[in-house]
Amino acid sequence: MKLKEKILMDKHKIKTLLKKWLPKDRFEHSIRVEKTAVKLAKIHKIDEEDASIAAILHDCARYNDINLIQEAEKLGLPIKPIEKVQPKLLHPRLGAIIAQRKFGIKNKNILAAIKKHTVGSIKMTPLEKIVYLADHTEPARDYKGVTKVRKLSFIDLNAAIVECASSMLQDLIQRKLPISEETLKTRNYYLTKDG
Ligand SMILES: [Fe+2]
Ligand SMILES: [Fe+2]
């Protein structure tokens, strides 16, 4: 079997399994994120297959009724105080583990992109940047500032990340929710560096 055929078959299997695994709306969001990530990968000349697989699986830990704290404890993951208040913040880290164990993903770059997709990180790879941005700009996203983030994501990934993290911070402040240190670090890093 040729490599391209094998990749397509593997992806088909992943999608079939994921469709059963995730709630319908979460699966549909994942497909939209995949399309957005592939579009960004084409524009920025990043491996489209890696982008596609990382994006499809980015929310694989947001399945029905998951108790994220319990799952994290079972796996022996350290839980930060903010994650106790907002367990949702655990899903990227759990997602990377589930992608590896349940979906058989071995590629470390893909797993890292899943792990960083929510709050970002300093020194992200191009793949990590586009999965983060695709998640925050897929067509159904409609937070204040999304149009600007979306436009910037086509031309300047770092500027789009600054804009995206800034919007997230404003939203969290407005809703009186705790702010993850990582969101602040991500914004500050890309605001002051080219990297
Ligand atoms: Fe997510
Ligand atoms: Fe998502």
From TrEMBL:
Instruction: Give the HD domain ranges.
Output: 26-140
Q: What class of enzyme is it?
A: hydrolase
The record's CDD domains line, in alphabetical order, gives:
HDc
SUPFAM superfamilies registered for this protein in UniProt: HD-domain/PDEase-like
Keywords in alphabetical order: Hydrolase, Iron, Metal-binding, Nucleotide-binding
**NCBIfam families reported for this sequence:** bis(5'-nucleosyl)-tetraphosphatase (symmetrical) YqeK (TIGR00488)
PANTHER family in the record, alphabetically? BIS(5'-NUCLEOSYL)-TETRAPHOSPHATASE, SYMMETRICAL (PTHR35795:SF1), SLR1885 PROTEIN (PTHR35795)
Name of this protein: bis(5'-nucleosyl)-tetraphosphatase (symmetrical)
For this protein's source organism, the top of the classification is: Bacteria, Bacillati, Saganbacteria
